[in-house]
């Protein structure tokens, strides 16, 4: 382990020991009034800063923890996000109309992966970047025929409702993210999304948007007015005596930029109709509070890109045990299948070490995949010659993560400030592959040498 790593770990330990805490979960974060008596009511703010360290005993030559773009710095200390939210909540139980808004922005290394298309996404070469998560108006409507509980509308820019894990670090059980969150889901949308409360048991979701991570209509140059982009789905509430919630959502639309093409196995360039070839995302998760201590979360997911004939599918199981007011123990087990017919598609599971690699991928800008210490690396790159068409492949990744959330009570912090500390140990491995690739421990020449990887990580979330 390098001296830099030791110093980074010591800095993290000092930070952890310097502050006390209260729980820093997204639903529980304290909100502070900043303006009372406005036409929509009181306006509040909240925020947090997340710092983290990930240690990889292999010390891969390219410096990356493969399969973990959000925590990809091997033996590196970083600020993942500093987030500030200004909002006025709507009352979803109100019998009449209610109005609100939410503005949420962040700065840190996470932002380089989560950008809205054409918003701050090419403004700097630094890994530390600005991003907007929410810029939305909210409307609650009263009951109307077939919707006994009214509806809640989001209008503007908002984080996707698909999936269990979220961008906001305070809403997740672990520091690292699942393959499913990272590669199988959208991050954000721009449009209008409604949750229609048909009964106390059933919600129906539906809305139109400009696409996955897209900001404005035709920003990717592929928006076809005759082809709808949007979200549909359902939610089941209060099952099993009020302890089980199930949400199933899908997003569909044309997501490949205009002018996209790929190389066929013969070396010919194949162009396709980007405006009419779809990408589909499907996700369902069930949150079951078994008792006061145990919570189970089960998630199933699939993504398909029609143009490339590529499919990703994930299954994730979480187990969360509340030991006491200070300690919560967590486990996560996952399998993720990454399949493609080839056609120049290198896989969903890739790493993005440079500041603009992820957004270049969204623009279909060719990325260096071999022979480059800092190049984008995908799990099947071992079988691909840079610049040539890839062969069909089928890789199944898995990860098993155990960790804890700790909220110390001494010494006290000022006001409602609080700290949550989350250590974790993670084991990634390749369960199967059609070409016997080795995606982990990538060398300086961009080639992996192992089928498994261990990472030890800790983050600290200071909420204010």
Features:
single chain, 464 residues, mainly beta, Porin, 16-stranded antiparallel beta barrel, 5 helices, disordered N terminus
Present the secondary structure layout:
Layout: H1 3-18, E1 32-38, E2 41-55, E3 76-88, E4 98-108, H2 111-114, E5 129-141, E6 151-159, H3 179-183, E7 188-197, E8 202-209, E9 230-238, H4 239-242, E10 244-253, E11 261-263, E12 269-271, E13 279-289, E14 294-305, E15 310-322, E16 327-340, E17 350-351, H5 357-362, E18 377-378, E19 393-406, E20 418-433, E21 452-463
Antiparallel strand pairs: 1-2, 2-3, 2-21, 3-4, 4-5, 5-6, 6-7, 7-8, 8-9, 9-10, 10-13, 11-12, 13-14, 14-15, 15-16, 16-19, 17-18, 19-20, 20-21
Q: What gross morphology would you assign?
A: globular
**Second CATH tier, the architecture:** Beta Barrel
What's the pLDDT, averaged over the residues? 85
> What's the total number of strands?
21
Helix content: under 10%
Order of helices and strands: HEEEEHEEHEEEHEEEEEEEEHEEEE
Structural class: mainly beta
Question: Class in CATH?
Answer: Mainly Beta
CATH fold annotation = Porin
Proportion in β-strands: 35-45%
* Name of the CATH superfamily: Porin
Q: Rg to the nearest angstrom? A: 22 Å
Strand order in the largest sheet: 2-3-4-5-6-7-8-9-10-13-14-15-16-19-20-21
